[in-house]
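User: Can you predict the 3D structure of PilZ domain-containing protein? Sequence below.
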Amino acid sequence: MQEINLKSAEFIATARVEVGQVVVCSLDYIGILPGRISTLTRRGFILDLRIPEDRRGRVSARLDWYAKRRLQQAELRGAPRIVPKHRAVEVRLGENILMPGTIQDISLSGAAIDLGTDALPFVGSRVRVGARYATVVRLIPRGIAVQFAEPFAADSFADWVRP
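Assistant: Sure. Here are the predicted structure tokens for PilZ domain-containing protein:
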């Protein structure tokens, strides 16, 4: 998804669609959005949304929340990355899978962790890195990149930090 408001949404898609086609989208954090394709673009299509009047307030609130969240995440990505003094970490997947790892670098919002294996959790998996909960956002060679559920406070973040 590129752009979205209460009237329309622009999607990047490879699916073959036609102008006038009815589409129902289910978007994380936003919900189910019905609409009709109004325009085909080079990379996808524009969907004229048909949100029922009684849902517009809730969808609007979710769109505002999502926009603020994306802005906060963008700001956190610009946070400095450090290599902590204590690099050893345990990554826990579920209750029974424990993977020893080495922190390659860490920031306020996430970390890159070398797990020394090609058997890695899937992108989107919930893990615990040390004592912090996180989501796997990317696979790296023999490791994972995670985004913490709660970022570090800027005043508690230094090269000695333990996740």
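Residues 88-156 form a domain with the Thrombin, subunit H fold (CATH 2.40.10). The chain is about 15% helix and 40% strand.
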